[in-house]
Amino acid sequence: MRCRVKRNGVLAAWSGLLLAAFYLISQSDFIFPVGGVQVVIREYWSWPLSKSVGGSASWVDQGNYMPLNVSYQLLAGTPATKLKFLAVGLASVKRKKGSYLLPTLGSLFSQSSSRERASMVVVVLLPDFDAEWRGETVEKIRAAHPSELEQGQLLVIHVPPQFYPPLTELKRNYNDAPERVSFRSKQNVDYSYLMHYSSSHGRYYLQLEDDVSAARNFLRTIAKSIRERRSVNWATLEFSSLGYIGKLFKAEHLPILARFLFLFYQEMPCDWLLSHFRELLVQKEQILIKPSLFQHMGTFSSFQGTLNKLKDKFFEEVYSNPPADVYSDISVYSDNVPRLAWEAGEGYFWGRTPEPGDCLTVVLRAPVVVTSVNVETGLDGKDFLEFGVVELGRSVVTTSKGEKGCQTYKPLGYMANGMFAKQDLDVELRSTSSCLRLRVLGKQKDWIIIMKIRITSRSPEQSPTPDFGMVII
């Protein structure tokens, strides 16, 4: 059984010697015992003097230090000539049961706009030593994503086995079986090499697995989260609560992170090492962004094909809110503005005690056919909307306050215990909508928190638009 106390003790001791270890590594050889014979592998890397002294940035922030002695084979894709905003890294090995790599790539690209795809590059490391499997996988990727490969949005790489340290007869920390120790140790080296390669391809790096699905416009949410934390000294932002899925790093930290994973590759699993690395860069608390942007979709693990039904409870699979402007005549508390109820993320709208007739109105920038609506209010059983109705509207107009709204509205239903959910609205209404409104119907003593308003929709071309049967309000 893995013991957190033990792993913390092990890493505390190792981390205390980390800088000394970096220095010693730069001055000496790696000696790997192979079959009773000591094989010496010289590490050639440089640490320029300009990086070690002077300048306003720390030696970590300056980057460009401690490169690994490794050569990469580019199996498919054309590297871009300009640095991307985001490099997305994932490694994929041969599985005993099924493969999720192509669905994962399909999700990443299909859930991104053309502009978002142009701002990112997905780097796929195929670290399996089975050359036949690698060749077949590359051909499948080429057939599925020719344009992404051509446009520098997808790269497929491999690292030959001679660049790997010993992967057998390793220390059995936490009493893991030898097979599991070898698997997770190689995985640490895989990710070390993947991060090392990706550090020169994007300003930020996102770590994923090869069996995940992505939320729509995930890159836009990531960029927004980064902007909101410009004044925060962070090392890792987490867009999933599962393991090392959805972990975001700054590119300048990747060289030291790659070295960190390589040095301690046989000590513990990757997600534990990533947590310790975050703490070493003086980020004590986890920064978990909700809702999660990535969901684990694999059923069988890459380790021996074991069953793995792990799911992220914070993932919003159906989140697809279109661009909109949000208004409310409810008095806002602090910076918890109305649009936070509409946008993805941890934020929410928090208003002072509402009066009957007060509204929160979402005005869509383009009409859509709404297929479902989900509204959640309140937090920890408090500040929920006691009496309210949810309405869809048409015909956008400008109010006397200079805000926008709709001329006509149709009620969908009433709030119950602070919640509202309704599906298959396009079957019932068969029309486009330009507004969604939450209207207060009765007095209440408490303030109001609107946690989220979520809709699913489709384009107007896919549905007829007969008379809406509106009541002018």
TrEMBL record:
One Gene Ontology MF term: acetylglucosaminyltransferase activity
List the InterPro entries.
Glyco_transf_54, MGAT4
Q: Give the Pfam families listed for this entry.
A: MGAT4_cons
One of the protein's GO biological processes: protein N-linked glycosylation
Occurrences of domain MGAT4 conserved region (ranges): 69-315
Any idea what this protein is called?
Answer: MGAT4 conserved region domain-containing protein
Q: What is the lineage of its organism?
A: Eukaryota, Metazoa, Chordata, Craniata, Vertebrata
